Amino acid sequence: MKKQELLKELAKRTGLTKKDVEAVYNALADLQKELLLNGEKVILENFGSLITKDVAERKGVNPKTGESIMIKARKAVKFKASKTIKEDLNK
Q: Which distant-in-sequence residues (6+ apart) come within 8 Å of 80 by Cβ?
């Protein structure tokens, strides 16, 4: 489901205007980004959690040339589904 489809469905389910739903959606996305940039964990009850994780430098291969390269260390966002979601998916 794409963003516009999600906004339309949320507006339908909540009775809010699509514009209001989009404002809440954008505010939530901005807040989550801000929290992750500050190293905080974002926990969404009955859905999952988002955390930042350090990924170490590693050796890789350029697929075009086959040349060995070093991939720089970086930070990544990891999502962990809640126990409820996992159980519902595996019924």
A: 48, 49, 51
| pTM, to two decimals | 0.78
Number of domains the chain contains: 2
Tokens 């963003």, residue located: 3
Alpha-carbon distances, residue 69 vs 56, 57, 58 (angstroms):
14, 11, 9
Angle at 13 between CA 10 and CA 19, to 5 degrees: 45
The parent domain of residue 14 ranges over 1-40
CATH code for the domain of 45: 4.10.520.10
pLDDT averaged per 10 residues, the chain (length 91): 96 96 97 96 95 96 94 96 94 88
